[in-house]
Design a protein that fits this description.
The mean pLDDT is 95. With 175 residues, the chain is mostly helical. α2 runs antiparallel to α6, α2 runs parallel beside α7 and α2 crosses α8. It contains 8 helices and no strands. The two termini are 28 Å apart.
């Protein structure tokens, strides 16, 4: 069995580079809304399947959605964001749940840190791969699933992107 990684995917892949370039054309709110929505629709379910009855991440996602819509302030949800990071640490004995929790909490943190709109995908790719292939698959299987996850994310961002965004976010990538 290969050693499980916390994150899967490659910053050098064509899908990732395309995501980076498209993200650079969008504003912070668009990126955060897309990240939260993508994590909600793809990784939150993985967490809930691994940890039935635990609704803490769901509450965080809901609060983030309300913040994006303007009905809550970022200062109000910061404690939830911090708690969601801790939630991921608590799931250390379950790599699938932990990766999913990291993906969701990182996506939600895109409200504060726009680069997290990319970072959450690496955790999400791991969550998706471990959920689909189990914890004993070959590295190539995990990498294939991660690549497909990045393709899916790129398509979703292309649909959410605002054409000719007048106030694109200024991002310094560290990858």
């Amino acid at each position: 069995m290969p050693k499980l990684r916390k994150m899967l995917g490659s910053a050098d892949s064509q899908e990732c580079i395309s995501l980076l370039r498209l993200m650079e054309t969008q504003n912070k709110t668009t990126l955060a809304a897309w990240a939260v929505d993508f994590a909600k629709n793809n990784y939150l379910k993985i967490y809930e399947n691994e940890c039935p009855g635990d609704t803490r991440l769901t509450h965080t996602v809901t609060a983030c959605e309300e913040c994006i819509k303007g009905s809550r302030k970022l200062t109000e949800i910061k404690p939830l964001l911090k708690a969601s990071v801790q939630l991921a640490r608590e799931a250390a004995d379950n790599p699938t749940a932990q990766a999913a929790a990291r993906a969701v909490s990182t996506a939600c943190s895109a409200l504060q840190t726009p680069t997290n709109a990319l970072g959450f995908l690496f955790y999400g790719a791991a969550a998706s791969a471990y959920s689909q292939a189990g914890l004993a698959a070959e590295t190539e299987v995990y990498e294939h699933i991660a690549c497909e996850e990045f393709k899916k994310a790129l398509q979703a961002l292309q649909q959410a992107a605002v054409a000719d965004e007048p106030n694109p976010v200024k991002i310094k990538w560290n990858c």
